[in-house]
Amino acid sequence: MDRSDGAVRAHIAFLTVPEYTMVTFTNAIAVMRLANRQRGQQLYRWSCVTMDGEPVSSSAGLRLLPDGALASLDDADLLFVCGGLNPQRYCEAALLEALRRFERHGVQLGALCTGSHILAAAGLLDGYRCAIHWEHADSLREQFPQVQVSSSLFAVDRDRYTCSGGVSSMDLMLHIVAAAHGAELAREISEHFVLERIRTEGDAQRLPLHYLIGAGNQPKLVDAVAMMEANIEEPLSLAELAGYAGVSRRQLERLFQDHLHCTPLRYYLDLRLNRGRLLLLQTTLSIATIAMRCGFSNSTWFGKRYVEKYGKRPSDERRAVD
Length: 322
Prior knowledge:
The strands form 2 sheets. This protein has a 7-stranded mixed β-sheet, with helices on both faces. A two-stranded parallel sheet has the order 6-7. It contains 14 helices and 9 strands. The chain has 2 domains: 10-192, 3-Layer(aba) Sandwich (Rossmann fold), CATH 3.40.50.880; 209-321, Orthogonal Bundle (Arc Repressor Mutant, subunit A). It is α/β, with parallel strands linked by helices and 322 residues long.
């Protein structure tokens, strides 16, 4: 903290890695800017760094001029790693060691969007609860089982601050502002940004299914889908799903057709294939292992179904990314 003029100013730094999500980064800064404006003093200052001090491209292709290189940062209270697309590509040894060095020097650490993957690769989320964008949650669990991956918008666990991406950085920063300067200031900032409400750590990233299927609020359908999502590696039979939901097989099929416009087994298969695609794109797990993780008895059967849905073989999907 900088106390040179009697005021307490938190210095929050942002490390942008290539393909970072710019909206998540700028939303975090917007909250601090308005906190300073509302109180008429510099409660926060911020800086943007890259590994070498040179601009990096965001996922939108935009390049901002950073304040310097990561190594030049010597007075940050909190350092956020700003991730986005393909975070696994940017886990260089020098970056991971630099983050560990900041941690040893007592700097609090955070991550925006998929920056959590980079912190996890550095071993800095072991035993911590963290948030990451829902598309990357399964791959983070697979690669770093010692990390407690949350499905919430953001997670604050001791000296780790992580959020899931998109506008969730605003929610996380409002939480930080409220903790340091009171809920009233956070409310003022929220109203200025025309937010419907201040979301909390308890809010989920994704809309519950009953919001997506309309006012009918079909609890049996919601229960069945929840069971599917919880049983990807060992898929349940249609009879088991119907039993858990408390309906007959015919009733369950009708619910899926009426509200999701497909059969239960088709919906279940698509869930499993989507999980497989994310693991292909985000991890180095073998195709055989991914097939097993997604409930397929062998990689041949997985590949056949994958081609039917995505028009390419799993090996081609991975080769295109590499």
